[in-house]
Amino acid sequence: MRFELLCVSKRPSRWVSLASDEYLVRLQNQLAVVCRELAPAANAATPAQQRSKEGDTIMRAIPAGASMIALDERGEQWNTAELAQHLTQWQQQARDVVFVIGGAEGLAPEVNAAAAQCWALSRLTLPHQLVRVIVLEQIYRAWSWLQGHPYHRV
């Protein structure tokens, strides 16, 4: 089983790559976590068309049998213990888990509808590149907590 962050974005900024790589290295040999970028839709006349085009691309990129978790400000907010519970459940299910970070116009309704869960990091609208870093850090934090590692302190 593996975890994947599927990000609709151009190549990440240097600071995002550095921060993301920090957590990917920390998780190495513990959890299989990868990041993959999908190109934003080009030539969309409206925000709705852009979401729709990107939604089609996202749905094609989800591996068969994987659980999709949509990152959306209208989703459920989880604390560290709840995320750790989800990590445990996902591992027990032995299915790949794909966290989807939408493009500048957000996620298409069909992506949210197809998601097993919608996760809100905050009610705030966050920059997509920052969301990538936060998701990786939170996965690392929850995993550390499950392992009894002192990274997470309650």
Quote the beta fraction. Answer: 15-25%
> Gap between N and C termini, in Å?
28 Å
What would you call the quaternary organization? Answer: single chain
Overall tally of structural domains: 1
Number of strands: 5
Estimate the helix proportion, in percent.
40-55%
> Uncertain runs with pLDDT below 50, 5 residues or more?
none
Description:
The structure is a single chain. The chain has 154 residues and is an alpha/beta fold. The protein has a single domain, classed as 3-Layer(aba) Sandwich (Alpha/beta knot). The protein is 45% helix and 19% strand. The chain contains 5 helices and 5 strands, in the order βαβαβαβαβα. It has a 5-stranded parallel β-sheet with strand order 2-1-4-3-5. Helix 3 packs across helix 5. The chain is globular. The model has no long low-confidence stretch (mean pLDDT 94).
Summarize the structure.
It contains 5 helices and 5 strands.
Write the layout of secondary structure elements.
Layout: E1 3-8, H1 14-27, E2 33-38, H2 47-61, E3 67-76, H3 80-93, E4 97-101, H4 109-114, E5 117-119, H5 128-147
Properties at a glance:
154 residues, alpha/beta, Alpha/beta knot, 5-stranded parallel β-sheet, 5 helices
